Amino acid sequence: MDLILQYFPNLTEKQIEQFAKLQTLYAEWNDKINVISRKDMDHFYERHVLHSLGIAKVMQFQPGTKVLDIGTGGGFPGIPLAILFPDTHFHLVDSIGKKITVVKDVAKQLKLSNVEAQQARAESLVRKYDFVVSRAVTRFTNFFPWVKGKFKKEDFNEFQNGMFLLKGGDVDEEMEERNVGYVSYHLDDYFQGEFFETKKVVYVPWEGKR
């Protein structure tokens, strides 16, 4: 938890309390179903919470922004981002029902009224969003068709509507499989530690002509 305060020192008392509860909630669920790998639970705040918040070092969502988290698993990056941006609406989807059960319970326990969790495949959704976020779900060439038609036309954030993807390793080779513009932000510019040396936030603006 100290890690979170180190990099996000301006949290409210409520946010500090919510972040502090996360590990206990996930540890309890992990005893029932394998939401997070056992070895990762020992580094929970670094590898899951802080990693998710890497998007917040690049982008500050404005109040009223609507964000879709595709393949959220147990709620990452959506849950940490929802704590940090209480006035932004987060729609967390995953095709695996038991993971969404965990997300719904965590959101309820933390009283996150800005989180909606749904068992669904991304391509079946018809709503439109300002941004899509995701963490290491699949290669971008597979991910790309899922987001088609998901973006609102009007922009009101600092960044043009689009995607913020948490990825590791050589993202250039992967991203260039599709003819898109993108910008990579290296997380080791924002966070210390070996874990972040190869981690990046990849921003892909959505251009309506595609």
From TrEMBL:
The cross-references to Gene3D superfamilies, in alphabetical order and at most eight, read:
Vaccinia Virus protein VP39
> Where in or outside the cell?
Cytoplasm
Any idea which positions bind S-adenosyl-L-methionine?
71, 76, 122-123, 135
An example of a GO molecular function for this protein is: rRNA (guanine-N7-)-methyltransferase activity
Q: What class of enzyme is it?
A: transferase
Keywords for this entry?
Cytoplasm, Methyltransferase, rRNA processing, S-adenosyl-L-methionine, Transferase
EC number of the protein: 2.1.1.-
Can you supply one Gene Ontology CC term for this chain's record? cytosol
Say yes or no: keyword Phosphoprotein present: no
Chief location bin = cytoplasm
- SUPFAM superfamilies in UniProt: S-adenosyl-L-methionine-dependent methyltransferases (SSF53335)
PANTHER family listed in its UniProt record: S-ADENOSYL-L-METHIONINE-DEPENDENT METHYLTRANSFERASES SUPERFAMILY PROTEIN
NCBIfam families, sorted: rsmG_gidB
* Function as written in the Swiss-Prot or TrEMBL entry: Specifically methylates the N7 position of a guanine in 16S rRNA.
Q: Which family does it belong to?
A: Belongs to the methyltransferase superfamily. RNA methyltransferase RsmG family.
Please state what the protein is called: Ribosomal RNA small subunit methyltransferase G
